[in-house]
From TrEMBL:
Pfam families: Peptidase_S11, SPOR. This is D-alanyl-D-alanine carboxypeptidase. Residues 325-403 form the SPOR domain. One of its GO terms (biological process) is peptidoglycan biosynthetic process. Residues 277-287 have a biased composition (Acidic residues). The active site is at S44, K47, S104. It comes from Azospirillum thiophilum. Belongs to the peptidase S11 family. InterPro entries: Beta-lactam/transpept-like, Peptidase_S11, Peptidase_S11_N, SPOR-like_dom, SPOR-like_sf. Transmembrane segments: none annotated. Residues 254-291 are annotated as: Disordered.
């Protein structure tokens, strides 16, 4: 069993050293490379490609978020972690997405794979073809979940490329990766990415673990308007892997920023909301969570364009949203000074004067770790105008996220 394009056997892949890479999300410039081309096993990072192909299908109409997909006996047979799906039942596409992002549900991954490929093995062939299109030269897929398969191999560099591709090609859906938890079957399922709860500016992406792979993490974070992606493979524990990622990102953010010639940086949701849960899951090694040395607070100057939320269509019913239809807002950044926040609000109004003509400017002091930031928002909007305004501002290179009444904190 030969790792494609690598010349390494599966046994050699198993013995490959831990690897890591940090890239600038906009330009692809490699800032840190630590054995980034070593052949490793992706484990549940595999689900990032499953989601990429799911987002492709949503964009071209082969799937809908509210579509119910059949659950097969093969999907039910998957080992944990899983949602506990039963053969003969159905699963909504959006629920499957959330199951992959937060719970890393192997049964939900198979449901999506069979819906798109007919069988999981055919879907794995689709995954490998897409990997080549993206430029992932050393990646080979055999399943949609990342469950152990010695032929399923990749590199840290390939997964940094996939991370960038998800942001570039599917910005509309990227906010799913920021979900701290979701409720399924009466249970609140927390996100396995513990680092999101303690590294300011991080808003995804995915954890993974098998015995062969060690502890893996693909992550992305924003500081001062600059987004980086990092991949750590082969950690000895979830805690040590997370600490390594935090240290690598801190180091990379300390370096000079490359020229801003590749368009606006991908956005960051405000991940400091109070509903954050420090979750356990498929990469939990039963170590206590050791709080890392506090990292410098990130000033979240960017935001993911038009978060999909639970439904992508505007809600016009005043009773459907707490506080009525005019309690939405758009956030155009979080800054180190009130003056900078006021300037951002002013620029936003100039860029979208019709949509923002009745909105009220609000620059509010807030805590981001130990630092103070000033959230710049325009309030008193309905959902439709808030989403339209963010789409327009993002198109013109500004940073914006629509904020629902439930997120007004």
């Amino acid at each position: 069993m030969v790792a494609v394009g690598s010349g390494l056997s599966a046994g050699e892949a198993l013995a490959a050293k831990a690897a890591a890479i940090v890239m600038d999300a906009r330009t692809g410039q490699v800032l840190i490379d630590q054995d980034a081309d070593s052949i490793v096993h992706p484990a549940s990072l595999t689900k990032m490609m499953t989601l990429y192909l799911t987002f492709d299908a949503l964009d071209d109409g082969r799937l809908r978020l509210d579509q119910q997909l059949p659950v097969s006996s093969w999907a039910e047979s998957m080992t944990p972690t899983k949602l506990g799906l039963r053969a003969g039942s159905t699963l909504k596409v959006e629920t499957a997405i959330l199951g992959l992002v937060t719970k890393s549900a192997n049964d939900a991954a198979v449901v999506l794979a069979e819906a798109l490929g007919g069988t999981e093995s055919r879907f794995a062939e689709m995954m490998t073809r897409k990997a080549r299109e993206i430029g992932m030269r050393h990646t080979l897929y055999r399943n949609a979940s990342g469950l152990p398969n010695m032929e399923q191999v990749t590199t840290a560099r390939d997964y940094a490329m996939l991370s960038r591709a998800l942001m570039r090609d599917h910005a509309r859906y990227y906010p799913y990766f920021s979900r701290r938890n979701f409720v399924y079957g009466g249970r609140t399922l927390p996100n396995h990415n513990r680092l999101m709860s303690r590294y300011e500016g991080m808003d995804g992406i995915k954890t993974g673990y098998t015995v062969a792979s060690g502890f893996n993490l693909a992550a992305s974070a924003v500081r001062d308007g600059r987004r980086l992606v990092g991949v750590v493979m082969g950690g000895k524990s979830a805690v040590s892997r997370d600490n390594r990622m935090a240290a690598l990102l801190d180091q990379a953010f300390g370096r000079a920023s490359p020229g801003r010639d590749d368009g606006p940086v991908m956005a960051s949701l405000d991940t400091s909301r109070s509903d954050a849960i420090d979750g356990e899951g498929d990469d939990d090694d039963e170590e206590p969570v050791v709080k890392a040395k506090p990292t410098r607070a990130a000033l979240q100057v960017a935001a993911v364009p038009v978060a999909p939320a639970r439904d992508l269509k505007p809600t016009h019913d005043a009773k459907s949203t707490r506080g009525g239809p005019s309690h939405w807002a758009v956030q155009v950044g979080a800054f180190s000074s009130r003056a900078a926040g006021n300037k951002a609000v002013s620029q936003a109004v100039k860029q979208a004067p019709v949509l923002l003509r009745t909105a009220k400017a609000s620059v509010v002091e807030a805590k981001a770790g130990k630092d103070t930031v000033y959230r710049a928002r325009l309030t008193g909007m309905d959902e439709q105008d808030a989403r339209k305004a963010c789409a327009l501002l993002t198109k013109h290179g500004h940073h914006c996220v629509a904020v629902s009444p439930n997120e007004r904190s």
